[in-house]
Every structure is written in C-alpha cells, then in structure tokens.
Amino acid sequence: MTTSRQRNRFVIVVTAASVALALAMTVLVWLAAGDIRPGVAVTLISLLFLTTLFVAVCVAAARELARREIVPLESLTAAAENATAGDLETPIPTDQPQTLTRIAEAMDTLRAQLRVATKSRDYLYELIDSMSEAVIVSDLDGVVKRSNRAAARLLGSDPADLKGKLLWELFAESVRPGISMDDLAGSGGETVMIAADGQEVPVSYTSAAISDGRSGPEGFVLVARNISERKRAERRIRYLARFDALTRVPNRMQFQHLLQRGLARGRKNGSRTALLYIDLDRFKEVNDTFGHVAGDRCLETAAERLAECLPEGAVVGRLAGDEFGVMISDVGDLASGREQLTEIATTVQEQLSNTYFYEHLEIFLSASVGIAFAPDDAGNVIDLIRNADAAMYNAKHDGGNSIEFYRPEMNVATVELLMLKSKLQRAIERGEFLLRYQPKLDIRDGRVVGAEALLRWKLPGRGEVSPTEFIPLAEESSVILELGDWVLKQVCEDYRAWQKADIDPGQIAVNLSLRQMRQKDLTQRVRQRFREYEISPTCIEFEITESTLMEDPTTTVEVLNEFYAMGVNLAIDDFGTGYSSLSSLQRFPINTLKIDRSFVRDADIDRDDATIVSTIIEMGRTLNMDVVAEGVETEGQLNFLRQNHCHYVQGHLLGGPLTADEYLELLRGDKDGSGRHRALFAVS
After folding, report:
1. What pLDDT shows up at residue 49?
2. How many angstroms separate the CA atoms of 155 and 150, rounded?
3. Smallest Cα–Cα separation from 318: which of 272, 258, 274, 263?
4. Relative to the CA of 620, which of 103, 254, 423, 459 has its CA 20 to 30 Å away?
C-alpha cells in the first residue's frame, strides 16, 4: 500500500511539472509572435514556477507526513488485525511517533490481558472437561451453551448434541414440575435426569447462577454426579435391614415386626396367632463335615421348601443360624388350632426331611418344631418367641424330628431369666460390671486414635454373661439407666488416670440406649460428669444405633443437637442395619458412621457387601463424616477398607477388648512406635 501511494505522489509531481513546462512554452510562443508583452510573459512564467514549486513542497510534506504518521498507523492496524485473528503471542510494536505511542502501548496491554484471559479460559475449559462430575452451563432461558465430557457420558450423548437443548429437557418428566428458575439460581439435592436413550439416571446435584459481579445473572451452571450405584447400594442396605441375604426371607428383626403386627390384628379380631419355631437337626454336623458353603446351600433350600409348603398368608422368617420362624394367623379355637398346626408342622417336617443336594453330595436333615399360641401362651412377641423356642428345645431333647406344643413347665429358661433379672438389679452394687476398651486405629498408619468402651458382666458362679443376654434385660427396666451412668463415670475415671500418666487416650466412645436418650435430664447428667472429672466433652464420643436414631427422630435430634453444641462427637453404631438414607442422615448432627460388622465380614469376597461398604464410605465422605469399620478380623478385610479410603478400623485383627491398664500400655507402645499392630499398616 505504501509503494502504491509513493507511485501516486511521483505521478502527481511529474504531471504538475509537465503542465508547467507546456504552459511556459506556450507563453514563449505567444511572446515570440508578439501576442503578449514581455512583462506579462515574465509574470506568467514566474507564476508557473511558483505553482510547480508549491506542488513539489506539498508532495514533500505529504511524504514526510506519511513517513511519520500514516505508515506507523498502518503497522498498528496490521498488528491489531493479527491479534483479532488469534495471534496474541506477537507483541504490538510500541516504538512509534509520539502521537501514536500511547495508543500502541494501550493496544499491547490489551493484547497481553486478552492473552492471559484466553489462557485462563482455555485452562478452565480443560479443567471442567477433566472433572468426573457433569457440568452443564446454560443462559438465562435455560438453553445449554456448554457441557463437559462427563455430562456427555452421564446422559449418553455428545457435547455438541447437548448444546442448544433446553435444560429442562435433561430432567426426567416426573421431576420437571418441581424445578424452577429460582431453584437453578442456587440449590442442590437429589433428582433424576434423562439419558439420550430414555434411561432415567439418579443424580446428586448443585446449581448456581452465573454472574460477572457487575450486573445480574447471565445464566446457570449445573454440576451433577451419577449416584446409581449408591442408590442401588442403599436399596440393598434397606433390603438387608429387613431380609436375610442368604435365604431372602425376613430376618429376625423384620420377622418380629411382622409378628407384632400379626398379634395386633389377632387382638383386634379376637383370633389366635400361632408361631412355629423350627430348627434343622444335626445342621452343625453338615457345616463341620462338608463346610459352610454346603450348609448355606441347605439353608437356601430349606427356606424355599418352607415357602412352597405353607398355607397362604403364612409368614416365614430366619431367626438364627439354622432356625426359622413361621407365623400362622387367624387360628380358631385351641383344640382345632392344635390339629391345624400339627398338620402344618408335619408337612413342614416332611418337606425339610427330603434329600438336600450339594454338588455330588446327598445330605439328610430333619426338623424339630416348637409351637406356641398367642394370646394363650404369651401376650407379646418376645414371650411368644421365647416360649415357642422352649417347646422346640424340648422337641430336640427327645431326639429331634418331633413336634412339641408349649407348656408352662417347659419354660425353665424363663425362670432362669427372672433370676438373671434379679441378679442384674444388684450387680452394680456388688461391683460385678467391668469395662473393656476396643482400640480404634487410623487406617493410614495404624496409629491408635481412641477406643470404644464395652460393658462386661462377671457373674459369680457363672462367669462372664454375654452382653447380648443382659443388655436386653437391662433395657426392659430402669437398670439400663443406672448402667449408662456407671459406664460414663467409669470412662471418665479411666480417662483422667490416663491423662495423669501423660498419655493422650484419644477419643473414647460410649454407647447410649434408647431409654437413655429419652431421659429428660440426660444432657445435664453428662455435663455434670465432665465437670466432676475435668474432662473435655471433645474427648468423648456417644454412639447410638441406627434403629435408636430413627425410633423417635424428633426427640433424638433435639438431644443430639445439645450434645453437639457441648462439643461431644456423635456416631451411628451398626450403620446399614436400619432404615437410614443419605437424606435422613442430613437431619442429624452426626460426625461418624460405624459400618456394621455383618457387612465388613465378607466385603473383600462378596460383591454386594463390597458395594454396600464402599457406598457407606462414600456417603460418609459426601456428608463430611468419619467412617469406622467394625469387626475387622482378616488382612483381606483391612486391605479392602484401605483401598476404599475408610478412615478408621476396629476388630480382633487389630486388638481385642482391653482392660484400662492394658489400653494404657498399648498407648505407650503406640507413642514410642513399638505398637505390635503397626506392621499391618506398613506400606509395601
């Protein structure tokens, strides 16, 4: 462009000089012919010369102006066009004439800022694309403008196909009415999205409005995560809370619940309810001889046979290892009821006596059946099960494969139970209760971070009584309240002693029962104990079972909030055996989830248990809770929990229940690095 302009200027100068020369020749011709006077000719020639000189000066000035201003301006324009085309790396030249220097510097600063902003944008896009969560951005009208690869995977589509769709179209029709613009401006929770193939996808999500901070919202961003696996595991957890995983019939807890409802209907209708307590004879021999897999196969077959041979309306449940319960409702008078139940029990025995097959083996079993009626033999579920159980044991005592109806004299166990209750009342006064401490370890390095206080009863003349035997008895009376107070007092005493030994005991967990949670002055009693022993509330963790948590949620959340405000750590014990879900847990100020040992036992070898455990760990992480696995007994279980990023572990592999002195020695060994359990946590 510059060469063209120079050529144009040269043409103008030459043309002007040619015209001037032609005019001068014409004047000279006129002068020679005498047409003009000499003075006029000189004047004309002078004017022509001056005009030509003026044109030459103007051209020279224009050339200088072009050199100093126009050419640099053209180079700035070219540099700006390059930057606009995407070349943000090449600096804009700032060595310009004074009039253009500030413009050039401003343009180069703008280029540099645009370069940084572009790189930041590209980095952000790469970061969003690398996220495992789906990210979808829309304008204020809900039109999708951008999405990442995770969103495409979640919805089974390409990012290009998602662009231009309405955000509402990505949600399942069933949830669309509940989603509004206000929700997208800032909300979160769980919902259902729809994939390209029409499949519904459950997700957890958060959404927010997008703004540059200077004006109102410009659009929305939705971040979603696929929770299909977690939902499946939650369904599995709820199923296992009610049903036996092996036989797929109601477990003891659910069967007792169904039996309770059956008794209530019977009272309302004025009819009887019968309970058959069935035990497979010589089942232990099958396990010992052929192994647990063969035994499990027999239990599965037995449950199937029971379901097939029982009358319509009968309910089957697995009460213990090889023990099943059957509820028969709407039984008539006692005499005809005995005949009816004898016939049913005989059919049950015949079916359960048929050959069981496992691989190439033929296994033979029989069944003993005990029968009790409500309300004749018992007025509540616990007594009805206990009495039918007593009748079953009498049937086994006679050699098995027989049927016995309950008689009061059978229930020697009931008399023993009453005696046990009586002794339980005086056990605290006699100092028969003991505390043991089950260590809790950090799964990363095996460091002892605390322990769980476990109650033991050493009954003179009998030895140690199982907690599963005396805790339910204590909960039936006010003894559980006295026991609870004694346990906390003893824990505080031991904690103070450990501190005086210059040892940090970590956090000690204490179990709270349902009856304790209902004490109106529970928090005041706890606070008083802490003051009495100068113990910080943060040193103690209270554990409540999942069933206790959901029994009376309104009262429970009030008590837990008071403890939480006090600084006490709160944990759900035996998590996975009740009815909790992620949404229900969010109502309570819980710090820790303890995975029930029944899930941990086979987590490293059973796919369902593995999914449940990993899901509970993920739930804890989602809710910012610590997760403790109970009942760790093998290195395989420990490795599985470590791989799934569980926080803490307990179990006999890591150390059984210890006395206060033994726990102190464990802490000392842990402090100097000589703890015997550390080798389990060494990184290979």
Report:
1. 62
2. 9
3. 258
4. 254
